[in-house]
Amino acid sequence: MEVQTIAVVGSGVMGQGIAYAAAVGGFQVALHDVKQEALERARQAIERDLQEGVKRGKLSQADAEAALGRIRLSDTLAEAARDADLVIEAVLELMDLKVEIFRQLDKICKPHAILATNTSTMSPTEIAAGTGRPDRCVAMHFFNPVPKMKLVEIIRGMDTSDQTVRIVRAAAGQMGKETVEVNEFPGFVPGRISALVGNEAMYMLMEGVASAEDIDKAIRLGLGYPMGPLELADLVGLDSRLRNLEYLHKTLGEKYRPCPLLIKYVKAGRLGKKSGRGIFEYGEDGKRISPTDRN
Ligand code: NAD
């Protein structure tokens, strides 16, 4: 089976990036979200990313326009998914929600269609268990920001077939991505490390070890990380990071207990770049404007 049409479910931070990569890779894309405003924000973000690609010489203007023309937005799951060869789910990191969406997709999609989850931490076996096609379910874990990050982790569920793995690796390759195959275990590889490092940086901020800017600068210049862990947490979304840590804490134990300061930021609605304010502050254009003081 050759993938031609991809449906992306959830048009938040990751869904919009995956839709971008899929359209640039030449696939027909249906992008679905339950919230109309999330779809509208995604359309604007994709247009911005395409123009950025043109500016950086990665795409011609004609390529960017053609990619945009391959994306349609849909507020109905059935309409978005019924013709798809591959569905990539990118809704919130909540097991019950993912299980329910996979159940619905199993009924809506064509028999050959592959259902992939972009979960950061959770079990693709459990997400697929309510479907009648666990052999055609898998995790495709993209990284943020998707247009720039080269990796897709492929995680097999217990019944995922070799053919499914082959097809999703090829689809990721057509999106310009490299793949690694990882066995199912909470958090997989980069996500598990990143959650720990980010949580530790949050503890340092809470303990007053250094300012947010200096913690990030120390890690960038001292350890050679391309980005500071606090800046990365804002990019990931502090709510998403918290959900990841909660799941890792529940499944892997004490060392993943979410830092109380992270919980406080999420309670305050300071979710990071996507809400304009997290550990740092961001302007309308998504660029960082000024560092905020520690709580
Ligand atoms: P997000 O909060 O930015 O977006 C989630 C979107 O899902 C929202 O637009 C919401 O309206 C939509 N949604 C909620 N319920 C829905 C439903 N029933 N049907 C359709 N859409 C629905 O979240 P995100 O950061 O894009 O994360 C999405 C997934 O990707 C999560 O599983 C997360 O763990 C994973 N992930 C996130 C990152 C990251 O850096 N943010 C990186 C890799 C993987």
From TrEMBL:
<dbReference type="GO" id="GO:0070403">
    <property type="term" value="F:NAD+ binding"/>
</dbReference>
<feature type="domain" description="3-hydroxyacyl-CoA dehydrogenase NAD binding">
    <location>
        <begin position="5"/>
        <end position="184"/>
    </location>
</feature>
<keyword id="KW-0520">NAD</keyword>
<feature type="binding site">
    <location>
        <position position="144"/>
    </location>
    <ligand>
        <name>NAD(+)</name>
    </ligand>
</feature>
<feature type="binding site">
    <location>
        <position position="274"/>
    </location>
    <ligand>
        <name>NAD(+)</name>
    </ligand>
</feature>
<keyword id="KW-0560">Oxidoreductase</keyword>
<feature type="binding site">
    <location>
        <position position="98"/>
    </location>
    <ligand>
        <name>NAD(+)</name>
    </ligand>
</feature>
<dbReference type="GO" id="GO:0016616">
    <property type="term" value="F:oxidoreductase activity, acting on the CH-OH group of donors, NAD or NADP as acceptor"/>
</dbReference>
<dbReference type="Pfam" id="PF00725">
    <property type="entry name" value="3HCDH"/>
</dbReference>
<protein>
    <submittedName>
        <fullName>3-hydroxybutyryl-CoA dehydrogenase</fullName>
    </submittedName>
</protein>
<feature type="binding site">
    <location>
        <position position="120"/>
    </location>
    <ligand>
        <name>NAD(+)</name>
    </ligand>
</feature>
<feature type="binding site">
    <location>
        <position position="93"/>
    </location>
    <ligand>
        <name>NAD(+)</name>
    </ligand>
</feature>
<dbReference type="InterPro" id="IPR006176">
    <property type="entry name" value="3-OHacyl-CoA_DH_NAD-bd"/>
</dbReference>
<feature type="binding site">
    <location>
        <position position="33"/>
    </location>
    <ligand>
        <name>NAD(+)</name>
    </ligand>
</feature>
<feature type="site" description="Important for catalytic activity">
    <location>
        <position position="141"/>
    </location>
</feature>
<dbReference type="InterPro" id="IPR006108">
    <property type="entry name" value="3HC_DH_C"/>
</dbReference>
<feature type="domain" description="3-hydroxyacyl-CoA dehydrogenase C-terminal">
    <location>
        <begin position="187"/>
        <end position="282"/>
    </location>
</feature>
<feature type="binding site">
    <location>
        <begin position="10"/>
        <end position="15"/>
    </location>
    <ligand>
        <name>NAD(+)</name>
    </ligand>
</feature>
<dbReference type="InterPro" id="IPR022694">
    <property type="entry name" value="3-OHacyl-CoA_DH"/>
</dbReference>
<dbReference type="GO" id="GO:0006631">
    <property type="term" value="P:fatty acid metabolic process"/>
</dbReference>
<dbReference type="InterPro" id="IPR013328">
    <property type="entry name" value="6PGD_dom2"/>
</dbReference>
<dbReference type="InterPro" id="IPR036291">
    <property type="entry name" value="NAD(P)-bd_dom_sf"/>
</dbReference>
<comment type="similarity">
    <text>Belongs to the 3-hydroxyacyl-CoA dehydrogenase family.</text>
</comment>
<dbReference type="Pfam" id="PF02737">
    <property type="entry name" value="3HCDH_N"/>
</dbReference>
<dbReference type="InterPro" id="IPR008927">
    <property type="entry name" value="6-PGluconate_DH-like_C_sf"/>
</dbReference>
<comment type="pathway">
    <text>Lipid metabolism; butanoate metabolism.</text>
</comment>
